[in-house]
UniProtKB/TrEMBL annotation:
This is Pantothenate synthetase. It comes from Methylophaga thiooxydans DMS010. The keyword Nucleotide-binding applies. GO terms for molecular function: ATP binding; pantoate-beta-alanine ligase activity. Its main location: cytoplasm. The lineage of its organism: Bacteria, Pseudomonadati, Pseudomonadota, Gammaproteobacteria, Thiotrichales. ATP binds at residues 30-37, 149-152, 186-189. GO terms for cellular component: cytosol. Its EC number is 6.3.2.1. One of its GO terms (biological process) is pantothenate biosynthetic process. (R)-pantoate binds at Q61, Q155. Pathway: Cofactor biosynthesis; (R)-pantothenate biosynthesis; (R)-pantothenate from (R)-pantoate and beta-alanine: step 1/1. InterPro entries: Cyt_trans-like (IPR004821), Pantoate_ligase (IPR003721), Pantoate_ligase_C (IPR042176), Rossmann-like_a/b/a_fold (IPR014729). Homodimer. It is found in: Cytoplasm.
Length: 284
């Protein structure tokens, strides 16, 4: 496995693979890797001959400088984990490599329809930062395939729209959310939970599972069902940011009786830790 931090070395290696007609898959990350990230690499192995993983903590997508400063950097451990998974190349660019003119002068990519809903409402500028860095990474790596986790479902939809709108030559693959034995979605933020919060946290997944069952069994009033689920979360110690049912294909508001492929999405704080989750809900 090769670790590179500059564009010339990255493109030289990928060009060599291209000359041998090898399929290249790409997994972008911000490091601090856990089994959820590693499952994306495993998925990439199923689809391609060569695997590139990037590790870059992207300042553009943090609207809180304290969050950026506090984000764990575990590069040595991350590289060891990736080597054990037979990753071919790890790209570890600096801020200067990614934004040589500085972030204030960086061209920004805006994907319409994402900033005004769900995670976009509480994190202004976040998705522009994601869209910008992913577009740059796609141009740098030039992969055939890129793998993203369904845990960040809104991000996955944003990337798919980005690729479609800009006619980028990369196939976007969504990989299922990895969970621990309690059902809690794997996340780097889980390490910040106290012992007591760790016991409470799986209730987030349990509530959206109950809502899914209610919807699939037929309910008269979706708004009431959502409100009840939020109340249960509050009683369990959560501070819900949103809990919503959306059309799976584009995250438009779901219309029961018309839409059949739905996605239930939730974000809530448990103490100072922000947790997100989502599940599919099929009425077909």
């Amino acid at each position: 496995m090769q670790v590179v931090d500059n564009l010339v070395a990255l493109r030289t290696r990928v060009k060599n693979w291209r000359q041998h007609n090898e399929i290249v898959a790409f997994v972008p990350t911000m490091g601090n890797l856990h089994d959820g990230h590693l499952s994306l690499v495993q998925k990439a192995h199923e689809l391609a001959d060569r695997i590139v993983v990037s590790i870059f903590v992207n300042p553009l997508q943090f609207n809180d400088k304290n969050d950026l400063t506090a984000y764990p950097r575990t590069l040595t451990d991350d590289i060891k984990l990736l080597s054990e998974l037979d990753c071919d190349l790890v790209f570890t660019p600096s801020d200067e490599v990614m934004y040589p003119e500085g972030m204030d002068k960086q061209t920004s990519i805006h994907v319409p329809g994402m900033e005004d809903k769900l995670c976009g409402l509480g994190r202004p500028g976040h998705f522009d930062g994601v869209a910008t860095v992913v577009t740059k990474l796609f141009n740098m790596v030039q992969p055939d395939i890129a793998v993203f986790g369904e845990k960040d479902y809104q991000q996955l939809m944003l990337i798919k729209k980005l690729v479609q709108d800009l006619n980028l030559a990369v196939d976007i693959v969504g990989a299922p959310t990895r969970r621990d034995e309690t059902g809690l979605a794997l996340s780097s933020r889980n390490n910040l939970l106290t012992e007591k919060q760790r016991v409470q946290a799986p209730l987030l997944h349990e509530q959206i599972l109950l809502l899914k069952t209610s919807i699939e069994n037929g309910i008269d009033d979706l708004d009431v069902a959502i409100s009840d689920a939020q109340d249960h979360l509050k009683q369990a110690g959560f501070e819900p940011e949103y809990l919503d049912v959306r059309r799976e294909s584009d995250l438009a508001l779901a219309q029961l009786g018309q839409d059949t492929a739905l996605r239930i999405l939730v974000a809530a704080r448990l103490g100072n830790v922000r947790l997100i989750d989502n599940i599919a809900c099929n009425l077909a």
